[in-house]
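Render this sequence as a predicted structure.
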Amino acid sequence: MPPGCVLASATVGPVVVVACLCATCLSWLFFRWRRGSGSSQFVLGILPSALLLFTVSVPVTVWSLLQAFSQIAERGVGGLRDVAPFCIGIDRALWFGGLLFLIVMGTAGMLQGWARASQDAMAPVHDAPTAGSRWLRSFVVASTLSVFPVAILGHLATAIPSQVMQAGASSRDSKMTSEGVRQASATIAQGTVLAMFVGMACSVLLALFGVANLFAAQSRAALDPLDRFSWVVLAGVGMWAAWTLVRLSTDLRAFEAALG
């Protein structure tokens, strides 16, 4: 099987699993709200889980690139085309995750808007504030800050393919000798290790936030006051994700044109 196909199956799988989990969690939040036992703040409830779509593929794709360099080093010679599928695979995985992120968050926003309209048409329901509602609200607000490390991770991950492609393109006929491989490996080593570490750390953090936010969304007293804040968050992450997709699409076209 071509390396590109192997890489695609290895990276798309985790992203699809996370997307299915997001769909399940969003359905559960909506079902709980319909039964009157949960908040309608679906955006905040699903955000950390949806951000996992950006992070789960990074450790796999970066590790695959390192393995490709190791194989070239063992053979003693290789070319840009040998590692290009793995470089492009990083951006493709992030692009696919970003697209699914927009779909999940867009769906959450539509459900929340519909729920808000339904609540306005009905008699208001007032939940008695609980002792922990303020702490839950603060925790959910803090969880939205996880967007920033995810954005940093995306920057680190997309910088790796650019460095590798530049190193390979600078070699004659796109061939890299063992010395060239060592130099290229040294150039990207720090960024690669950092991207893998940040990717795994972000995934663990987002998983914890995701579970906590799902339970926090069961309290109307905790999350309903965050209605305006949730729309600001949705607009912000939506613009960031859309800009990321555009940038990744531009990079992918540039890489494919360079290899063509």
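Summary. The CA atoms of residues 64 and 86 lie 7 Å apart. The two ends are 21 Å apart (CA to CA).
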